[in-house]
Specification:
Layout lengths: L2 E7 L5 H12 L4 E3 L8 E8 L6 H4 L4 E9 L1 E3 L8 E4 L3 H6 L3 H9 L3 E5 L8 E2 L2 E2 H6 L9 E14 L2 E8 L5 H12 L3 E11 L2 E2 L6 H6 L1 H5 L3 E2 H4 L5 E4 L1 H8 L4 E2 L5 E7 L2 E9 L2 E7 L1
Parallel strand pairs: 3-12, 15-17
Antiparallel strand pairs: 1-3, 1-14, 2-3, 4-11, 4-12, 5-6, 7-10, 8-9, 10-11, 12-13, 16-19, 17-18, 18-19
Length: about 290
């Protein structure tokens, strides 16, 4: 069972919780994920199984799509609904009087493109060897460096009184909690992320994801939904090796191939045997099946 399983993570589960459930249910030792999803969030969580755990470096850079609900007028210490309320806008009604769909759409457009974002203090980013949330829990001050992110698309889905529902396509490393707070500031108030659903990770969509219950109740059916590595890298060019080159490749010898740099599907006698990378006309083994 070497491949990827797309899980629709339920609220309250950590990404590691899901990994443990998949590991126990499928009786597979090697299981991992391609990037955490907050316990309070739901949606797409690609789970790597078996030898697919070796390819996480190729998936971690993928863009992600979310649907978020921004609650206006209050702010929390964590930036989401799980935190303690630490601020309230007593003049929110005055702000809402002038808030309409077109106004919100124009504000969302301001966030398109590459920009700097300061990650939330309640996050797992490490500073001086400690995770930021460890500083937060101890009430310790720490300098947080802004990170470069990119918002490819952002779309208003619904404006309902003091709540804004929007869809966003963004680069890895984007914190939607921070984005919600920044949108609220542009509107002229404060806010926090009330709900979050990840709907896509690159080509992996929530429509193709399975729930934890489906995993537990239909193991054989779930096995059929595992995306194998050959299918996952179907867009990459194919290289078919002869007997001699196959042995050299499997033994870690770099082979000369005048091809563009990148990832390649490696075959022998038209049988998929793994992945290789070419850099400066040298083919190097990467994942062997």
């Amino acid at each position: 069972m070497d491949g990827i399983l797309i899980i629709n993570k339920p609220k309250g589960f950590t990404s590691h919780d899901v990994v443990n459930v998949v590991r126990k249910t499928l009786n597979e030792k090697k299981v991992g994920h391609t990037g955490t999803l907050d316990p309070n969030a739901t949606g797409v969580l690609p789970i790597l199984i078996g030898k697919a755990t070796k390819i996480s470096k190729y998936l971690i850079e993928h863009n992600k799509e979310y649907i978020a609900i921004l609650k206006l007028g209050k702010t929390t210490d964590t930036g989401d609904s799980k935190g303690e309320i630490v601020g309230e806008d007593l003049h929110l009604k005055d702000v809402l009087k002038y808030l309409n769909i077109e106004h919100v759409k124009e504000i969302l457009k301001l966030f398109l493109g590459e920009q700097k974002q300061i990650p939330p203090i309640y996050s797992a980013i490490k500073v001086n060897g400690k995770k930021l949330y460890e500083y937060a829990r101890k009430g310790q001050a720490v300098e947080i460096e802004p990170r470069t992110i990119t918002i490819q698309k952002i779309e208003l889905l619904e404006l309902k009184e003091d709540e804004i529902c929007f869809k966003v396509l963004c680069s890895k490393g984007t914190y939607i909690r921070t984005l919600c707070e920044d949108i609220a500031k542009k509107i002229g108030t404060i806010g926090y992320m009330k709900e979050l659903t990840r709907t896509k990770v690159n080509e992996f969509s929530i429509e193709n994801a399975i729930t934890i219950d489906e995993l537990k109740n239909n193991i054989e059916g779930v096995k059929e939904k595992i995306i194998n590595l050959e299918a996952l890298f179907k867009s990459e060019e194919k290289i078919d090796l002869n007997n001699r080159k196959k042995e050299l490749f499997l033994n870690g010898v770099q082979l000369t191939f005048e091809h563009p740099n990148g990832i390649y599907r490696i075959y022998h006698d038209n049988r998929f045997i793994g992945l290789g990378t070419i850099n400066n006309d040298l083919l190097k083994r990467d994942v062997i099946l």
